[in-house]
Amino acid sequence: MKSLNAQHHILANAHQQVDIIEHGETGDFALVPFQQKLEQSDLYPLKPREIEILQVNIGKMCNQTCRHCHVDAGPDRKEIMTIETMQECMNVLRNNPQLTTVDITGGAPELNPNFRWFVEEIAKLNRHIIVRCNLTIILANKKYYDLPEFYKQYNVEVVSSLPFYTADRTDRQRGNGVFDDSIRALQMLNKAGYGNEGTGLMLNLVYNPAGAFLPPSQQSLEKEYKQALKQKFEIQFNNLYVITNMPISRYLDYLLASSNYEAYMEKLVHAYNPVAAANVMCRSTISVGWDGYLYDCDFNQMLELNVSCKSKHISDFDRKNLNNREIIVGQHCYGCTAGFGSSCGGTVA
Ligand code: SF4
Ligand code: SF4
Question: Separation of 134 CA from ligand 1 center, angstroms?
Answer without folding.
Answer: 7
